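Encode chain A's predicted structure.
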Amino acid sequence: MHIHTHGSKGDPVIIILHPMGITGEKMYEVVGTKFRGEYYFITPDMGGHGSEKRKFRSARAEAAALHNYLQQKGLTQIRLLYGASLGCAVSLHLLRYEDLNIEHAYLDGAPVARLSAVMRKIFAPVLVWQQDMIIRNREKGISDFVKRYGRDIAEHMADSFLKFDKESIYHIGRDCVVGNTPYLSRELQQRISFEWGEKELYTKTSMPLVRKIWPNAEVIVRPGMEHCEAMAQVPDYVEKIEERITGTRPVMIKLQGLDEDQIREISQQIADAFYDYKYNEEDIGLIRFIPAREDMFTYIHAIVRAAYRSGVLYTTSDRREGYLMLSGEGAGGTVGFVDGIKMIAAEKKALGGIQNMKQFIDACFSDGGTIETRMRKEKRKFLRIEMLVVRKEFQGQGYMRRMMDFAYALAEERRIPVILDTDDRDKASRYEHLGMKLDRVRICGERFHMYDLIRE
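Encoded structure for chain A:
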């Protein structure tokens, strides 16, 4: 491994680990130069790339070489570990070293899951075929690179491919298909972001595995994009990464590790906030269908329990001033089948039986259907705010804005709209003040309106 550095040694350390075909210096140009703060960048060339004369042996060996360098230089405090594709494979090995304090990690296109036997067999030969294609017809061989990354990076990748020996290609291909799932503590998971393009192979294989084994890690899927395409095509790609390491990005806590009593306590806080809300003269909202406080708790508890178990329930801080439930793209999970059935059964009880529940659902979906229904018919992706509540004693202190900003940040990274609906004109006005736009007002019954809002 050949090490390149940029910046002053006293500044916070950022490690940038390149994908196959792009050198460390090129990655500094593409990613590193876009950081606004003052950092000390370490941008290695792995085996077979750039200034490194040795062949590529394995991601594990590259991580070991980098670890030795960091130890020798006393650079064990790492502000950000950034990896792209092959660089992610090396990063996952580097995360195993307990003597490194890695504050944040951002892994774009990580090959986490072990691929099928067929894919493991053909992956490296496909890379060799790619090299042969570039040799025979350079323009045709790099056509996909040009579409994804632009002409400059594509030409650079072509030059790199032409220098590869077959042994390095096969070793690189192996590390992209064998999988790598190190133990990551809950605390470390909370400091890691995984990103994939919607159209790439690893979104179908590695993303579900990450959500299962590292549920506290952030997962980002870029709609319509291919493998590592965002780093070259999304203008604020680096800006959003830097927000994570500087603390300027809105942050919420995903609720984890709660027992049933704690879930009931949270449910009661949210139910009280809904029940005690003072509606305007035009609306009576949810109270029309759930007039008793006890039934309101039953209804909310069913939703909170399902959201918590599905990993889509967030809070503002350890004091739990407010709660946010999300669904759709970027929510962090989906309500499972069993939890969904339990939620429906509890809602039926709270609403007073199946007939009343049917009337409630019919009312909520009347006058043209919900904004979610219309978005799905148009086959548009979205992030939906299912529930947003600030506890009474913390209202008027900016927590609603904090939760909205968190949702906006998730949606902006994915280039998708935020949607929600609410049952009160005054609530809708607050959302409009915080950046939402009123899409339409649906008349769902006497003193029952649904206000559909969107932020695009």
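The chain has 19 helices and 15 strands.
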